[in-house]
Design brief:
The protein is built from 19 helices and 17 strands. By secondary structure, the protein is α/β, with parallel strands linked by helices. The strands form three sheets. An eight-stranded mixed beta barrel has the order 9-10-12-13-14-15-16-17, surrounded by five helices. It has a six-stranded mixed β-sheet with strand order 1-3-4-2-7-8, sandwiched between helices. A two-stranded antiparallel sheet has the order 5-6. Helix 3 runs antiparallel to helix 4. The radius of gyration is 53 Å and the shape is rod-shaped. The protein binds ligand C2E and magnesium ion (MG) (2 copies). One magnesium ion binds next to loops.
């Protein structure tokens, strides 16, 4: 497992653990708040009970006082009727006091309370016994003895009862204080625990946030297919090195797999993906601390390597063994790579380093026998040209600096003009710039599609104009880059422009370069079918230069095959094999009922050979170079060539 994956897994684990800690902390806080509520309820209940107890005790004291007053009143009363009432009231009060005593009993079971309760109880028993004596003496007319009892023993009982009540009261108060203290301690503890939990939750959330943002940073900066860094992350890392003044210790290396396109086409894109993953894993296994690998789209990788380790890296990279998964297990494949290298200098920004090694890689791509190229300053010229073209291109379109030239196609059997190809030219600063100076740049940067439609629009406008002026045009082919096939509305856009000029397919042909290969074969096939449906011809351009196979012709219902002019180079040197090759290719194309035209026909010998080989059509300087609009119009009016 790569270091990065391990780091990511660790981050995910830490984030999970901290989430769990935060949740546990939250649960703890909830538990504490529940406990606090319970404590509060217990406290309230205890207080209520204690207050009730106090209230009952004091009520007994008060009622006793009342009872005593009634008794006095009774002793002093002469009226027997009133005496009866007072006695009756005193009896009732006695019952009430006894009822309160019973209720107090409920609250005073156990401990010291019980002792005081018993004191009050026996005091009251004694009191009421004495009351009976007093009443008896009073009724017997012995008021003096009754009064004596009142003063002495009855008073003693009351003092005794009140003393017990007071004792019990202070006990209750002490009890309430203790409960309050205990509860305060518990609340303090709970508060401290809650604070601790909150700190745990806070810290855990913070850690979780840090790791989550780290994971998301990793994801944002990661190429999802290979797990390598992406271009942005490499750029940021390079900027960091630059700020620390360490970039100059590094070498930028741009790497791509040789013939990766072929692997993709031959084995399919899922195998291609697996190859890329293994390749990236092998590259990243070669890195040491501080170095970085990034994928820059497709099979393009960029590395920042310590300069001292570049030599060893370049020695290892030419042969990399990869497993190619297939139906019957996997096969081994040895991959070769192309590399462009640039050693960073003091003044360089990271973008300079990456640009320079990419330029060197582009150079390596152009070379046949060299796969590893160090950057040279002359390559900057190309970079400058690139930037210049990209900057000026859009303005050029708006200012209509792009012109369409027409190169005739000729039927060699009667030397008659039979069609033409629209070829773009850029009139920049008064000079005509040929397409090879800007088309490959625009194509590489994905900017060509606008220009193609600009040219096609011009072609349709010219055809409309010729028709309106009574000049019979020929079928005009327009070049479209393979990049269009990625757009689902490619065909619709073509039809839309034709509709704008009220044209049907009679005079239109679409040229698609054969080197587009199979990568978008399904899109190509349905595009060609759609064109056929609308009577628009399609042709396969530059046949023989790319990854073509004759099976492509079989499966693709194109109308015309354009043999690349490079086929004719061999003819000059009398290469018999080439002659046989062309003859057989032409025969096969015709057997598949496709038309065939050869580009680059410059000599009568070419014409002779091609007609003998069965190729009826030609395009080349022998007949005409690409002509400006007005010159081509003259050719339309005089469509037969005189070739001596
Ligand atoms: P192509 O489509 O294969 O066009 C034929 C090229 O061969 C033209 O070059 C033409 O001038 C050249 N040619 C024709 N006959 C002869 C000959 O007898 N001898 C020699 N030496 N050359 C001959 P040109 O116009 O420079 O165009 C180069 C390429 O630029 C085109 O190759 C085509 O791939 C591309 N291109 C031109 N216009 C457009 C366009 O509007 N869109 C796109 N996507 N590509 C275009
Ligand atoms: Mg062409
Ligand atoms: Mg061509």
């Amino acid at each position: 497992m790569s270091k990065k994956k391990r780091r990511n897994r660790l981050s995910i684990r830490i984030a999970l653990i901290t989430v769990i800690a935060a949740l546990a902390g939250l649960a703890g806080i909830l538990r504490l708040s529940y406990q606090m509520r319970q404590l509060e309820q217990t406290y309230n209940r205890t207080m209520e009970e204690n207050y009730e107890k106090m209230e009952e005790m004091h009520r007994i004291s008060r009622q006793l006082q009342q009872h005593q007053s009634m008794l006095y009143a009774y002793l002093l009363e002469d009226d027997p009727g009133k005496c009866d009432t007072l006695e009756k009231n005193a009896k009732e009060l006695e019952f009430e006091i006894k009822a309160v005593l019973t209720s107090l009993r409920e609250h005073t079971r156990g401990g010291e309370y019980e002792t005081y309760y018993h004191d009050i109880f026996s005091g009251l028993v004694g009191y009421f016994k004495n009351v009976e004596f007093i009443l008896d003496f009073s009724k017997a007319g012995d008021t003096a003895t009754a009064a004596y009892y009142m003063k002495t023993s009855l008073q003693d009982y009351i003092i005794g009862i009140n003393a017990s009540v007071d004792h019990m009261g202070s006990l209750v108060e002490a009890d309430m204080r203790t409960v309050r203290d205990q509860i305060n301690v518990k609340i303090l503890q709970a508060n401290q625990e809650a604070m601790l939990m909150m700190v745990v939750v806070g810290v855990a959330t913070l850690i979780c946030l840090v790791f989550c943002s780290r994971i998301s940073d990793e994801m944002v900066g990661t190429d999802l297919l290979t797990g390598a860094a992406n271009f942005d992350r490499l750029l940021k890392y390079g900027e960091k090195l630059q700020k620390k003044g360490k970039l100059k210790q590094f070498t930028g290396i741009a790497v791509s797999i040789r013939n990766f396109k072929f692997i993709n086409q031959e084995y399919g894109s899922s195998v291609g993906d697996s190859v890329l993953q293994q390749y990236a894993a092998k590259l990243s296994a070669m890195l040491v601390k501080g170095e970085m690998l990034a994928r820059n789209g497709g099979d393009n990788f960029l590395l920042l390597l310590h300069t001292g380790r570049v030599k060893a890296f370049l020695e290892r990279i030419p042969r990399m063994e990869i497993d190619v998964p297939g139906e019957n297990g996997s096969d081994k494949m040895v991959l070769a790579s192309r590399c462009g290298m640039y050693q960073a200098e003091e003044k360089d920004a990271i973008s300079d380093v990456l640009d320079a090694c990419t330029l060197a890689l582009n150079d390596a791509r152009k070379q046949k026998n060299v796969d590893q190229v160090w950057f040279e300053s002359s390559m900057y010229g190309e970079l400058q040209q690139r930037k210049d073209v990209l900057e000026a291109y859009r303005i050029g379109l708006v200012e209509r600096e792009f012109l369409v030239y027409y190169q005739p196609k000729v039927d060699m059997r009667n030397n008659h003009l039979c069609g033409c190809e629209a070829l773009v030219r850029w009139k920049r600063n008064g000079k005509i710039v040929p397409p090879y100076e800007f088309i490959p740049i625009l194509e590489a940067e994905g900017n060509i599609t606008l220009l193609d439609f600009y040219v096609f629009d011009t072609v349709c406008r010219d055809i409309r104009d010729w028709l309106d002026r009574g000049i019979t045009p020929v079928r005009v082919s327009s070049n479209f880059s393979k990049l269009h096939l990625k757009n689902e509305d490619f065909a619709d856009k073509i039809l839309h422009i034709m509709e704008k000029y009220h044209l049907d397919g009679t005079y239109i042909e679409v040229e698609l370069t054969e080197s587009s290969g199979y990568e978008s074969f399904d899109a190509l096939k349905s595009f060609v079918a759609c064109m056929k449906e609308h009577g628009i011809h399609t042709s396969i351009d530059d046949f023989g230069t790319g990854y073509s196979s004759l099976s492509l012709l079989k499966d693709l219902d194109a109308d015309m095959v354009k043999l690349d002019r490079s086929f004719l180079f061999g003819l000059e040197s009398g290469n018999v094999l080439i002659e046989k090759l062309i003859t057989n290719i032409v025969r096969m194309i015709r057997d598949l009922e496709r038309d065939v035209i050869c580009e680059g026909v410059e000599t009568k010998r070419h014409v002779e050979f091609l007609t003998n080989a069965g190729c009826p059509y030609a395009q080349g300087f022998l007949y005409d170079r690409p002509l400006p609009h007005d010159d081509f119009e003259k050719r339309l009016l005089s469509p037969v060539y005189q070739i001596d």
